[in-house]
Design brief:
Length: 355
């Protein structure tokens, strides 16, 4: 399949670039576009057959439902049931932005979007190119993250082109996304409301508007949930091919960084303050004081780990508040929920288990 690559400024896209994608969406094709979180792989969200192409392109299991991306409050009513104007204004106070809401669906939404569930996930992305694309297509755009199933989400168009060329009709070449971690998903059909996935909207900000919200262990990433809260949770996610170890604490990370031999193929992933001056192989996530920037680089660091000749990666933990909650959730998943001490990693190196 031929994939057209279209360069477009995501903050100020020209009309021609927008129309190229919109006409493909209207014709039932697939388009990879930037959002403020990660790249999405979109199709006409009201066209069941078009949405099936998304599952094919990603190798995504058909029982894992999609998020509908909308560009106006009107579109929300076309796809979902919002109980009250109070609830509507609470939702709108986060939109456009990295919040996905789960609501009862309208009958117009095809089963391929919701995987047969009676709820639908909806969000209005805070990205001018994404909004213009949805607006010009005139339909909600169903889109999961644009990566192949089980690969890390895509936060840079270069990765989208490398991974997805030949699998979709068009890819926007628009550089890096602003947040880098997917949207926070809140279930507004549950009482109390609950977070199904931590993400780029901070829980603290959500609680200020929606009141008390339940945060499940699965949303924190501290446990694999017994019962999948979202169908997506039962699938392996965000997994680099090389093993990634989450150090028990920052001190152990620093001690390993200082004491491990240089020759080993270990990639240290961490904040600038800790990595500065080190001669070890490293991936700089940005300053500790800017967790939003750290979030925007976390998936790229996983991809970098896989692209080099590293045997393993090590990463340090972050405080689990604000943007840190979503960051730690992605790290825990990528590391297969295992933590390590400096001594364990050193022993593995010394025993020749890691060359
Ligand atoms: O930031 C984001 O949310 C990105 C950008 C492209 O918008 N999208 C994204 O989509 O991360 P995806 O498909 O990778 O993750 C959506 C998650 C999945 O875990 C899916 O199971 C869940 O949302 N989901 C979608 N509809 C649902 C529903 N009706 N009930 C429960 N979970 C649902
Ligand atoms: Mg995904």
């Amino acid at each position: 399949m031929y994939t057209r690559i279209v360069r477009a400024d995501q903050d100020n896209p020209d009309r021609e670039a927008v129309m190229a994608g919109a006409s493909i969406i209207r014709a039932g094709g697939t388009v990879i576009f930037p959002t403020e979180t990660v790249y999405g792989l979109g199709a006409d969200g009201l066209n069941g057959e078009a949405c099936l192409k998304i599952f094919m392109a990603k190798n995504r299991p058909a029982d894992n439902p999609l998020i509908l991306h909308i560009s106006s409050p009107d579109m929300l009513d076309r796809v979902a049931v919002v109980d009250s104007s109070d609830l509507r204004s609470k939702i709108m106070s986060f939109w456009p932005g990295p919040l996905t809401v789960l609501l009862r669906k309208q009958p117009t939404v095809p089963d391929s979007v919701t995987a047969g569930l009676d709820t639908v996930a909806v969000r209005m992305p805070d990205n001018p190119l994404a909004l213009a694309l949805i607006d010009s297509a005139g339909v909600p755009i169903a889109a999961p993250s644009a990566n192949l199933s089980t690969r890390p989400s895509i936060t840079d168009s270069a990765d989208a082109i490398a991974e997805m060329s030949g699998r979709v009709d068009l890819i926007y070449d628009s550089g890096r996304t602003a947040y880098g971690i997917e949207s926070t998903i809140i279930d507004l059909t549950a009482r109390p409301y609950r977070i199904l996935r931590s993400g780029s909207a901070r829980i603290e900000d959500l609680e200020a508007v929606f009141g008390h919200i339940e945060i499940t262990d699965a949303a924190r990433g501290t446990a694999e949930s017994e019962v999948a809260l979202t169908p997506g949770m039962k699938y392996r996610h965000y997994a680099p091919t090389r093993p990634l170890f989450l150090m028990r604490n920052v001190e152990e990370f620093v001690s390993l960084l200082r004491s491990s031999p240089d020759k080993h193929n270990v990639l240290f992933i961490g904040c600038s303050e800790l990595l500065d001056g080190s001669t070890k192989e490293r991936y700089d996530l940005g300053p500790f004081s800017d967790l939003r920037q750290v979030g925007s680089r976390i998936f790229s660091s996983f991809r970098y780990l896989d692209s080099g000749s590293y045997e393993l990666g090590v990463i340090h933990p972050f405080p689990e508040t604000g943007y840190g909650l979503g960051i730690m959730n992605r790290i825990r998943k990528a590391s297969g929920h295992r933590t390590a001490s400096a001594i364990e990693i050193m022993e593995a190196m010394g025993s020749g288990r890691i060359e």
